Amino acid sequence: MRFLLDDEQREFARSLDSMLTAADTPTAVRAWAAGDTAPGRALWSRLAEAGVFALAVPERHDGLGPLPVELAVAFTELGRHAVPGPVVETVSAAAFLDRLDDAAAAAWLPQIASGKAVVSLCLPAAGSPYALDPDAADAVLVVEGDTVRLAETAGPVQPSADPARRLARPLGGTVLAQGPAVAAAAAHAAEVAALATAAQSLGLGRALLDRTVEYVKQRTQFGVAIGSFQAVKHRLADTLIALEFAQPLLHSAALALAEGADHRSAEVAAAKVTAGEAAYAAARTALQLHGAVGYTEELDLALWIRKARPLRDAWGTPAACRARVLAS
Amino acid sequence: MDLDFTAAEDAFRAEARAWLTAHVPHTPLPSLETEEGFAAHREWEGTLSADRWSVVSWPEEYGGRGASLLRWLIFEEEYFAAGAPGRVSQNGINLLAPTLFEHGTDEQRARVLPSMASGEVIWAQAWSEPESGSDLASLRSTAVRTDGGWLLRGQKTWSSRAAFADRAFGLFRSDPDAAKPHQGLTYLMFPLDADGVTVRPIGRLDGKPAFAELFLDDVFVPDEDVIGAPGQGWRVAMSTAGNERGLTLRSPGRFTAAAERLTGLWRETADPSDTALRDRVADAVVKARAYRLFAYAGVSRIAAGGSIGAESSLNKVFWSELDIALHETALDLLGPLGELSDGAADAPAHGGWAEGHTFSLAGPIYAGTNEIQRDIIAERLLGLPKGRR
Ligand SMILES: Cc1cc2nc3c(=O)[nH]c(=O)nc-3n(C[C@H](O)[C@H](O)[C@H](O)COP(=O)(O)OP(=O)(O)OC[C@H]3O[C@@H](n4cnc5c(N)ncnc54)[C@H](O)[C@@H]3O)c2cc1C
Question: What is the pLDDT of residue B244?
Fold first, then answer.
């Protein structure tokens, strides 16, 4: 029993963190929101070079994985930097295709691993009828029942509460595969998506906390730093507690997925609801403690704040997750 | 990263489980906060220690098994899963013993620990005073130098089970002229039946008589019962406080077992359409799981050479709020049956949920209130500036 990330995993997180810091991710997020996906795709290539997408792809298709623990580590950093685009959808599409094990897998998985293909995935059975950023994707997979189709068009794009997310119902297309294996693969992909989203939430929450701690140390009112007020301190202490206790649930869920454990669905659900709620609470706290400046678009903080609620509800709402925790 | 146990750890778990199955009393003992319950629990401590299960993590020479922290966690999981009695020796085992391991002398350890492990001597914590709760360093009771020892004078209060316990440990002001309140304090052990000690029981919120206040009137304590150096009591006591808030006072097994019982109650009694209640059950289950995994991560960190410092305050706030959530949710599932307490014939679990609920409400107060813990988290873990206290 050594329930700790090893040195290599920690180093991987650190290197992604510094790469994303150096890459000026907020600018790419703002561009993505404005409809210019080029800076986001450039970021995407660098993530691919770092091996992020290969973690979801098996070795026989030029990947490194599947490695759920490393995926959780990577997606925590993606969340910390609010990386835009269907990152979760791409890795879960990889998990889906891997389970189909046919020509489609051979065609798409190496491209996903190398970062050439951005793939969106829509699984209405997992909660949402919308695909994320299908207009920016190279392929969009839609699973209905036991049929998967490769959508022809993204469908009309609808705005999300987070400007860097765009939603659409993909239309038309050709049937790629059909049968019980499709449904099983989709269920597996939904677990991977929930895990990656939980990790993103955790990273997002940590970024919100870090920024807010820095802010309350330097903002003064009544002649002292607002961070010396107990009401402020206690709210931040609660934010830290919620995030700290979400982390082991995330890691345990990743291990359960890696081992294909029977209880993996409940584990992933527990991680998802806890990280999602913790990040949303962190966003509320961040906004409150920044005051009105936090309510402006100019501050990068807005990029994180506006993502918290959508991530909490994507790939398993809290209610759905809680039901799954007790279903086993 | 893994959560796998070795074959030896699995064997340890199996051994603990088998022993507990054979020995845990079939009917619950009376509350350890009452005189007869205290006696029954003292006897249980003796049963535990006869087979070396009372202090598994201590070295063998003091009655333990030299078990690793991880094995201690495993033992505690089995202990609570088996529904074994509460530990009447907990203040000694969780607070005094770690202090003696860290700051005591060999002579003190040899003298104090074996009788603590066996339940022969049960210890009370005499820290709080009427005017000194959260601001513990403001305490006023004194220790005055005398031939071969010290004379204690003053008053201690809210001391759990001191009404029935044998000995107590606490802080006293030995240098009234020290520059700061944290200086000039000395940590001492003293008998509760010594000349000059008056023990007055105080009823608790749950009607149990086991709190007590202690009036100390020139109580003699020999030098050999000073822990650490005279005047260094604050430092000695704070290493103990970390233990109290951290893992050892409230091990995850307790909440894991309670969450299991809560899930069972939900399956038996809940209206399936009441999703609000379902969500609260799920939250309690998830939090108990998070606490357990957090403990495993902490134990892994310690095994890798790390230590737990202010992180113990994260634990304190988390377990105390979790305990209340578990019990409040159970009471909501029980509805009108929820108020039946303490062995009530009609009550599920012998009224344990109602009794446990009242006790859980004390969690955010004792072992350092949660307000104080949040200050510690904000200042030491987040680096926020110290404000007025
Ligand atoms: C069940 C139980 C068992 C106990 N057992 C023992 C025992 O065995 N031995 C022992 O010595 N003591 C024991 N205690 C006492 C316990 O340690 C104290 O109650 C605790 O330290 C708080 O002190 P107080 O009760 O005097 O509250 P106070 O310090 O008066 O605090 C009252 C309220 O004010 C808040 N407050 C105080 N200062 C601040 C601040 N700076 N910022 C924000 N809020 C603040 C507190 O958080 C609390 O909510 C026990 C208490 C309980 C409830």
Answer: 60
**Domain range annotation of chain B:** 7-87, 123-232, 250-382
On whether the CB atoms of residues B1 and A3 are closer than 8 A, the answer is yes
Query: What are residue B382's phi and psi, to 5 degrees?
Result: -100, -10
Task: Please report, rounded to a whole number, the percentage of residues in chain A having pLDDT higher than 90.
Answer: 98
Domain boundaries, chain A: 184-327
Task: Give pTM, 2 decimals.
Answer: 0.96
Tell whether omega for the bond before A66 is within 30 degrees of 0, i.e. cis. Answer: yes
pLDDT of residue B308: 81
Q: Are strands B167-173 and A158-159 parallel, antiparallel or unpaired?
A: unpaired
Q: What percent of chain B has pLDDT over 70?
A: 98
pLDDT for the residue numbered B351: 83
- Strand ranges in chain A using DSSP code E only, listed in sequence order: 119-122, 131-132, 139-144, 147-150, 158-159, 166-168, 174-178, 220-221, 224-225
Please give the positions of B annotated as active site: 244
Query: How confident is the model over B291-305, as a mean pLDDT?
Result: 93
CATH 1.20.140.10 fits A184-327, yes or no: yes
DSSP E strand stretches across B147-297: 149-160, 167-173, 185-191, 197-202, 211-222, 226-227
CA angle B295, B292, A82 (to 5 degrees): 85
Tell me if B40 sits within 8 A of B98, measured CB to CB: no
Q: Which residues, 6 or more positions from A117, have their beta carbon under 8 angstroms from its beta carbon? A: A90, A108, A111, A138, A139
Rounded distance between C-alpha atoms, residue A152 and residue A141, angstroms: 10
B80 half-sphere exposure, CB direction, 13 A CA radius: 17
pLDDT of B246: 67
Residues in chain B closer than 8 A to A217 (CB atoms): 383-385
**Nearest-angstrom CA–CA distance, B293 and A252:** 8
Q: Name chain A contacts of B278, Cβ cutoff 8 Å.
A: 322-323, 326
Tokens representing B280?
Answer: 């609260």
**Amino acid of residue A247:** Q
B160 lines ligand 1 (CB under 6 A): yes
- Atom 7 of ligand 1, residue of closest alpha carbon: B159
> Maximum CA pair distance of chain B?
73
The answer to whether residue A172 neighbours chain B at the CB level (below 8 Å) is: no
Ligand 1 pocket, residue B159 CB under 6 Å: yes
What's the pLDDT at B209?
85
Cα separation, A212 vs A293, in Å, equals 12
User: From 1.20.140.10, 3.90.550.10, 3.90.1150.10, 1.10.530.10, which CATH number describes the B250-382 domain?
Assistant: 1.20.140.10
Nearest to A191 by CA among A284, A302, A306, A316: A316
Over residues A162-176, the mean pLDDT reads: 95
B144-200 residue pLDDT tens: 999 999 999 999 999 999 999 999 999 999 999 999 999 999 999 999 999 999 999
DSSP state of B151: E
Strand order in the sheet with A131-132: A131-132, A166-168, A158-159
Element at B144 (helix H, strand E)? strand B142-146
